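Batch queue: ligand-bound targets. Current item pairs a single chain with adenosine-5'-triphosphate. No template structures supplied; prediction is de novo from sequence plus SMILES. Inputs echoed for audit trail.
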Amino acid sequence: MDTTAEPGTGGEPEAGGEPGTGGKPEAFIALDRVEKVFDVRRRKGLLRRERHQVRAVDSLSFTVARGEMVGYIGPNGAGKSTTIKMLTGILTPSGGRLRVAGIDPSRERTRLAHRIGVVFGQRTTLWWDLPLIDSYKLMHRMYRIPDGRYRENLGRLVELLDLGELLEVPVRQLSLGQRMRGDIAAALLHDPEVLYLDEPTIGLDVVSKTRVREFLRQVNAERSTTVLLTTHDLQDIEQVCSRVMVIDHGRLVYDGGLAGLHEVGESERTLVVDLERECPPVEVPAPARVVRVDGPRQWVAFPASESAAGLVARIAERCPLVDLSVREPDIEAVIAKMYAERAGRTPTQSS
Ligand SMILES: Nc1ncnc2c1ncn2[C@@H]1O[C@H](COP(=O)(O)OP(=O)(O)OP(=O)(O)O)[C@@H](O)[C@H]1O
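Prediction returned. Tokens below.
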């Protein structure tokens, strides 16, 4: 498949990590203090209506390099979909500067459409009553994909996503997982350089989720497709992304590796010890503490950033150990704690 970037024509510097003038890879996606404010009218009483402004995205700045796979997460109403809609050109920012591959999405939406692919887990871009293959044929024409490239891409996507048996089936008869695979293939037929995925594994069973995640890793490895993934399923992030951005009340509150989230969330690991006999809760130095006792088994929580060795030695001094294990912090719990701690701090609405 052809992954070559089209030369920029809009007077903007061509972005995307190609060796440029300075030798430093430029950002493929770049947001600089981007804002999105919605004007909303709310009914108040029988006749009165009150005007509100909802600041969905608030001075948001980040960059994504070509080929990065980034998770974009946050609680409900945080501003994720609004960001994706601005990145595709569906919505126009109220302020700030936004570029994708050097293109201003809201001003050159059609030109950008040839370079991006979008998958919405809750909606389909396929024609509901037509067999899957007919949707692909329509996209072949819509995107003016050269015949050879279309055939090659289709053959490859059908093989990778195991769509062979489904091509003649009307989309409405496909299961959710089959439809999702069909949608992902549709988004990639025209060799987009960036793929936005909004909840791509929502409602899928474990096998289908694994398949979608494996496929995304493969596409990224083979074609350096930049992936921006919005999800509430943190396993999507753990298994697909090397970087995660957390947004809350329209603002970026974390940008880094998953491991770093543990530090921000002050997460804890748990040392599980099987003692030779039932003992009172073992004495351990704070902030470590025994959180559960069940017969000779005890659970000791301690900061994830610290080693368990000292604790093990201390416990063994007091009571002979039969077995032990260390449980890693649960990323879901770290994120939940982070969302909860931030909840209610920043107002999203202003009159
Ligand atoms: N068209 C609109 N008009 C008015 N307000 C809107 C509009 N679209 C989004 N909002 C508001 O903007 C805020 C951000 O919404 P957005 O859909 O971007 O959140 P999200 O992070 O995608 O949430 P979720 O995880 O629930 O999908 C919310 O307060 C939402 O009510």
